[in-house]
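Next up, a specimen:

>
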Amino acid sequence: MNEINILVTLNEKYLPPLQVLLTSLRTAHPDEALTVWLLHSGIRPDALEMVERQCGRLGMTLRCLTVDRSVFDAAPVTRQYPQEMYYRLLAGCFLPKELDRVLYIDPDILVLNSLRPLWETPLEGRLFAAASHTGKTGLMNNINQVRLGTDCKYFNSGVLLIDLNAARAQVRPQDIFRYAEEKGKALLLPDQDILNALYGDRTLELDDTLWNYDARNYNTYLLRSGGVCDMDWVMRNTGILHFCGKSKPWRPGYVRRFGILYKHYIQLTRRTGAYLGD
């Protein structure tokens, strides 16, 4: 089987969550060949060395690529939304040409089950595959459609299967930067809004219960499924558990349902002897 190529893009403060993600990734794929591509623009070498050490002990390959900051001289950035948010959409510009597909994953994620079915999903000529968090009524989806002037579902950008060859041909930095500059403060979640406004009609919809389960919304999933998607179902079937929102399970005071599961993976990560979170 061909190896699964994972893309992560982050700054140094998100390295500990990344390490927990990597632990869960290997736990869910004990026999898979895994390569993790890390795009960054200034993480300290000693911090990267700790992640490399962890990957070595987990038996996966880490490829670190430093992005030239000058590429983003024309890109609007803020403290809340740094330039790293653009990297996932522009992955085709930075990853090796021989790589034709990559799976982008946010660092605030646990991988619970094999990603192989997602990795092998036919993209049917689309640039991306992503899930939409529609909730019980889809109201926020409708609001976002009106806000952005789109007629497709509002996709979450935390998990993206990317056709890199198509992206190299169709995703242009100047289009993204121009849109970000023109819309400015109207963008609530800039990278996600840009994905939907510019490429929503070229995105294949994924099942969020499987590939981008919003950890805040257990009760919504349970009700929407008529009681099928209970905790046992999630642990057996969900591939990607996403800790969306401002409240994060590695911070003090997290009280949501999946917090104890996340702490378990933190403990497993500590056992690699290379955890940066302590």
Observations:
- Strands lie at 4-9, 34-40, 61-66, 101-105, 109-111, 128-131, 159-163, 203-206, 213-214, 240-242.
